[in-house]
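Problem: given the chain below (539 residues), write out its structure.
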Amino acid sequence: MAAGRRFGATRRTTTALLAGTIGVLAPLGVALPVWAQTAPADGYYATPPPVDDSKLIPDERKPDKAYKQSKGCVQRAVLGQTVEIKNRPWGQEYLQIAKAQDIVKAATGSAGGGIKVAVVDTGVTPHPWLKDRLVSGGEYVSTPKSAAPGLEDCDGHGTEVAGIIAGKPDNPEVGFVGVAPDATIVSYRQLSENYEPDTTPPSSTPPASSSGTPSSSTNPPSGSESSLPPSGNGGGSGGGDGTSPGQTNSGRQLEKAGTAGTLKTLAEIIHGIAQRGEASVINMSVDNCRAATGSITEGEQQVQAAVHYAASQNIVVIAAAGNATDTCPQNDQADARKPKTIVTPPWFADDVLSVGAIDSTGGVAPFSVHGPWVGVAAPGTQIISLDPAVGSPGLANLTFESGDKASEIQGTSFAAPYVAGLAALVRAKYPDLDAKKVINRIKETAQHPAAPGGRDNFVGYGVIDPVAALTQSLPSEVGVVASDPGPQMAQLPPANDHSSTPMIVALAGTGGGLVALLITLFVMRTIRRNRPEPTGPVR
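Solution.
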């Protein structure tokens, strides 16, 4: 009997220890996804490699190769009716641009006067609403026909970008106005989709572009994207049909086959601007998009070194975040830390403030490329800006797609200049802030999304708030560490870039505990059922 009792006690002790061991080990036995067990390395994906200063190249101040004009340049057009664009763009209302300008004017006497903004784009056509605030920066495509270097815009893209930054109508009835209408634009023509590499042997007849007039065989049909019939209407009041050149939300892509513009010349221009002190803000509504491969190209290294140098020279560097297309897939993968698409210059977020786009609802524009490098966001749809056609005194609000299909102007290309204009206003009101603090002020005062740390991969730190950027006192500027920004009420999609690891581990632990409890109950029930009946006399 004593031996049986000792055996039963031993069995119960062993069972209890077994159950306890299972309870401890059960959470570890639940299989976790590989990415939940170990976070993937960001290197060469979300985060680029360290800057290689040896890749900083000199500015040769000329095209990197010979290009010839392959399409006719933008012209004034007619859509069958006369349209006068006098309404104020929704983006101006949304951002309270007029109020922001009044704040700076009260403090300095002008809205960005004395601030130079470099526009690295397709060039800028002289326009009455830029007047003498447009100056030549440089030419990296082809010898201009009749304008100073950088002041010929065959594509029309750069002129519209410049208008959002510093357009200043001379008619009070026109609602449109640039963000910093007293700032100076320094134009650099760095790329063009209307030019292509010239492979003609030197001994052959000079290409059409040498005379400034493309041959009839290269001119698109009348009414197409690049060769539009002239309009008899248009005036300083902002009249005209509101059409624009053939540029869509695909943006301006560097190193695109059959076009002019490379990462090399972009790097040269950025370095040259910084070296010569030609501007304190740089706007680049141009991008190079490629698949993420875990590597970096030489051209990307050159741009990385250039923007790093510019930032060290107290220049605010701003770039469009990029537009999703068939050749530039959206970063919609589950793990935001391993993007499938890399966009340069935004990739170099340590030195570049990249700008995503929102639409008129306040939501993220579907074409705006997501990524860990997105800094802030601004309006990028239903754009109104300066008409880029030579001799036009008015505005544009439409473009042509597929030859003769009119559509609105949109893209992150036009969100970036809103931020560049704001940077000019901040630099005017706070002249003692260095470039990093200007960028920090724009980020900290943005309308933060409801995401951890007040930041997500869609709009970065949120939609810019010009009034707040020009008025708020920031703890970080007086040596106080700011608290994490709280969620703001904004019409933005919910964040989906958070890590699921804590939830998986918690669920696994809970599941393991339940399994251990069930096993313990089963074992104890078995022990009770197998316990021998007492054989002694009943008392």
